[in-house]
Amino acid sequence: MITKEMLRGLNACEDQIAIFAQAWPNGAEVNLENIQRARRLKLDMAWLMLHGLKTPAARAIYAEARARAWAAYDEIITNCGEAIVEARAAYDEAVASGFLVAWEMQKKERAMPKQIDHNQPEIVAALRAAGATVQHLHEVGKGCPDLLVGFRGVNYLLEIKNPNTKGKLTPAEAGWHLMWCGSSMIVNSIDEALAAIGALA
Half-sphere exposure (CA, 13 Å, Cβ side) for 196? Predict the structure, then answer.
């Protein structure tokens, strides 16, 4: 649900908020019908798509959908210039569909806290025994790594994986790692975790 209060919290323009509030005084569900109506009202959907998607996985899904739609649009206008209007309509519909999928994923991510891998407790115990401090992050969800580890004045982000999964990331985790500009490491065992922070002799 999008509300005028939510838009104001995202620092939307007051004129855009006024148009939205007049059309949807009680808020609007995110669906294709409402997205298309918002476009007809000249609401800045590109702005909403940029600021309304907060989780890395949702942003990655939307970015991929937008890139595919743009490639299709570019191909159409290159091969058939008179079809520009139809191409633009198809592009807008594809982008709206991508935003809807990303929005629904974001809702699910926020509703479901991340589960820990079975080997996380033993890895945490080993890190602490080596003199590191450990902050659990798995409840943050949204693809965030499992642990923040402090050791000898340096912070480390560790994603704990069960060896049986061979380090495979979930879509949310993959999206987070794609968007994160710092460093993080995936570890599968106690030795890998200790090596990651430089605690192995």
Answer: 25
